[in-house]
Amino acid sequence: MEPLLRVEKLSKSYHTRGHEVKVFTDVSFAVNAGELLLITGRSGVGKSTLLGLLSGLDRASGGSIFFQEKEVTGLSLAELAELRASSIGMIFQNFNLIPGWNARENVEAVLMHRGISATERQKRAVEILRELGLADRLENLPAELSVGQQQRVAIARTLVNDPVLILADEPTGDVDPETAAEIVELLLPRVKSGRAAMIVASHGLFDSSLATRIVCLKDGSLSEAAQ
Amino acid sequence: MNDDVIVCALRELRQNWRRTLAVISGYAVTVALVIVLAAVFLYSRVVQDIMIGGTGTYFVTWLPACGDISSLTEEELAGLAKGIIPAKCQEQCENCTGCNKKPYDILNEGFVVNTNTTRLLTTELAEKVAALDSLKNVSPCLMFRFRDPTNNLIFTVAGVNPQDYAVERNCVAVSDLVEGSFLDAAQPGKIVVESGFAINNGLKPGMKFSVAEEEFEIAGLVKTGVRPLNPDIMMLFADAERVINKRIHNPLEKEANIILAVSHDATHHRKAMEDVKKLLKTDSLLTTGCYWPASEALGLSGRMVWGFMLIVMLGSVMFAAKIQWSAVVERYRNLAILRAIGWSNRVIVWQLLCESLFQSVVGSLVGVLIGAGLIITLPVNSLLGVDAAMTGVLNPALAAVIFVFAVLAGLLASLFPVLRMHARLPLDDLRRF
């Protein structure tokens, strides 16, 4: 079976004040549907940057990313946006909800501009928010929600378009253990059912026993870690 | 562009109604200000036109006589009386028909303007002058100095068409009447007399006055004040032609010695005089109601006014640009989030342009209404201390231009930060903002 995502010799570097800063080089790995890959490493090693490259929010300095056997590193910004809208869900560490939009509108946003009717959008958004226990918080703004509720809205936004690849950046980083367990409970069924693959970047707050594989990003290189 | 773009744009405007209101207010204030300024400029031009029109947009023109008649020999004078023009005069006679129409009493009588003797011009030439675009009205005039052989009284008579505006400005108007009645084109045989001349000679309305042995009834007395033409007696053109014919060798044939003119307006005054001089050749003389470049002395220049308007418009564009720039830049993070969840740059650009278009159209429309309301309600003329109606200053075409200009400026101004965002990766904006 072909992997859902294949990364080959991926590297990323920045140019700051005339100097090249290498974040990582020659990172290679593959993820299949139904797998949860945990990327660990200390803060600042480039875990979030790696997720940014995988989601097409950033450009790699070298190497290739193949998604469903199609190379995506050379795609245009518009094509990458389309890929995110159709197949990739992203959970950010700080949730990245639109402050002026309520919970329902934040979730619906993913379904907009895709030819889905307003009624259908609203129905799907409400359904998933109910599924995540936010039925009575549909019209609340992010600022009116607890941190855990905000994270659940962010997860609802990620799952509403049924992505085949979920990228999560410290999904349990800012929440208490109980809420963290709830979040994992919400995300895992999609992976375990084989409908999606998930890549989690965490510096240790994510329960590693849930991962199918664990890799460690250290000193610019990626290596398999013992489970 | 899909329907969702408009839905999202309207939702964004509604949810951030304070910002929307601020942007719309910015447009409204700017457009209203520009419209009011434009109206004040236009009004200042109206006022200046009125002011200068009352003092200096009229003039008279004539050609000086072609030299001292006394230099001609007896034989040449006799030939002149028969219409034979001396060779030395011919080169100066392009616009003149008068050499064979010299007065019998050549030392005392003649075609004069003040103390200058003049040539005769055809009325066709006056019609050519009247056809100039820079002139509003033109009227031919006969001005002749008579001597009454019975008492040696010397006086000047002007033959005019009293209904012409050029006569009213340059010579005599019904408003100058101090006693009696004015000239009437339908009632020949009557004259009006300058009040100073009347006092000196004991003349009153209703009395008879003899011109070239022909009795005229004095219809009224006038005070003409300071005007380019100051005759003692004014009569109808046809009457003047008839009495003058009695005192010259050959009768006049559709001729006049002075052309009275009124410029189209103050801004065309200099051009009008230049056009007339060009037509009459360079040796023509002009007499004006006031120092002739009055319009320039007042600083009246169309280019200056429109130049200032352009500066104001550019200022408003920069203001609109600032408003739109701020409105987009403060949303960079939100826009980056939307791009991160799959919105394309194209969709975001369309949405921002829709929002910008809505705000600029509504704001500019409100601005036009506020501006028009201010122009109508504010007593600008009394505030400026000017006794002139505020007419013609609310120019719909100009308001439309200002409206379109503001809307386009807003769109362009919003496009610039949007295009800058377009070139950046979403992750850069998520990190930076």
For this entry, give a set of tags:
heterodimer, A: 227 residues, alpha/beta, Rossmann fold, 6-stranded mixed sheet, 27% strand, globular, B: 433 residues, alpha+beta, 12-stranded mixed sheet, two-stranded antiparallel sheet, 16 helices, 14 strands
Description of the structure:
- The complex is a heterodimer of chains A (227) and B (433).
- Chain A has 227 residues and is of the alpha/beta class.
- Chain A has a domain at 5-93 and 161-224: P-loop containing nucleotide triphosphate hydrolases (Rossmann fold).
- Chain A contains six helices and ten strands.
- Chain A has helices spanning 47-55, 77-87, 103-108, 118-131, 147-159, 177-192, and strands spanning 5-16, 19-31, 36-40, 62-67, 70-71, 88-91, 165-169, 197-201, 213-218, 221-224.
- In chain A, the strands form two sheets. A six-stranded mixed beta sheet of chain A has the order 6-7-8-3-9-10, sandwiched between helices. In chain A, strands 2-1-4-5 form a four-stranded antiparallel beta sheet, covered by helices on one side.
- In chain A, helix 5 runs parallel beside helix 6 (177-192).
- The longest helix of chain A has 16 residues, at 177-192.
- The radius of gyration of chain A is 17 Å and the shape is globular.
- Chain A starts with a strand and ends with a strand.
- With 433 residues, chain B is an alpha+beta fold.
- Chain B folds into two domains: 3-51 and 300-432, no CATH class; 57-289, no CATH class.
- In chain B, strands 1, 2, 3, 5, 6, 7, 8, 9, 10, 11, 13 and 14 form a twelve-stranded mixed beta sheet that branches. Chain B has a two-stranded antiparallel sheet with strand order 4-12.
- In chain B, a hairpin with a 2-residue loop joins strand 9 and strand 10.
- The longest helix of chain B has 39 residues, at 17-55.
- The two termini of chain B are 27 Å apart.
- Classes of the chains: A alpha/beta (227), B alpha+beta (433).
- Chain A binds chain B through residues 52, 55, 57-59, 77-78, 81-82, 84-86, 90, 92, 96-101, 105, 109-110, 112-113, 115, 118, 157, 161, and chain B through 2, 4-5, 7-8, 11, 15-16, 334, 337-347, 425-428, 430.
